[in-house]
Amino acid sequence: MNVAEIQAGAMTLPEDERASLVADLLATLPAVMSDVDDGSEEAKRRIDEMKSDPSSRCSWSQIKASLGRFHGRD
Q1: CA angle, 63 as apex, 61 and 69 as ends, to 5°?
Q2: Per-residue pLDDT tens digits for 3-39
Q3: Strands (DSSP E) along 1-74, which ranges?
Q4: Which runs of consecutive H residues, i.e. helices, occur in the chain?
Q5: Residues 21/10, Cβ–Cβ less than 8 Å
Q6: CA-CA distance, 41 to 47, in Å (whole number)?
Q7: I need a labelling partner for 20 at 20 to 30 A (CA). Which of 35, 51, 58, 64 fits?
Q8: Cα–Cα distance for residue pair 46/68, rounded to 1 Å
Q9: In sequence order, what are the residues at sequence separation of 6 or more whose Cβ sits closer than 8 angstroms to the Cβ of residue 68?
Q10: Does the global pTM surpass 0.85?
Q11: How far apart are CA 70 and CA 63, in angstroms?
């Protein structure tokens, strides 16, 4: 049985059984999917960017405001 066949079979299940199946499958995965470098290279890149261009920095208030706009709230 391949993934497509499993998915097709799962789609015939009632919603509550599909949700239970998804929860069971998710429980078998690590809590945090790991990057090759645990994201440290991305963090370093962002720190370097902020040091080289201080205007790229955002305050916590600005971040919260942008999240509100992103989710349709403001």
Answers
A1: 105
A2: 999 999 999 999 999 999 999 998 888 776 666 667 7
A3: none
A4: 3-10, 15-26, 40-52, 60-70
A5: yes
A6: 10
A7: 35
A8: 22
A9: 74
A10: no
A11: 10
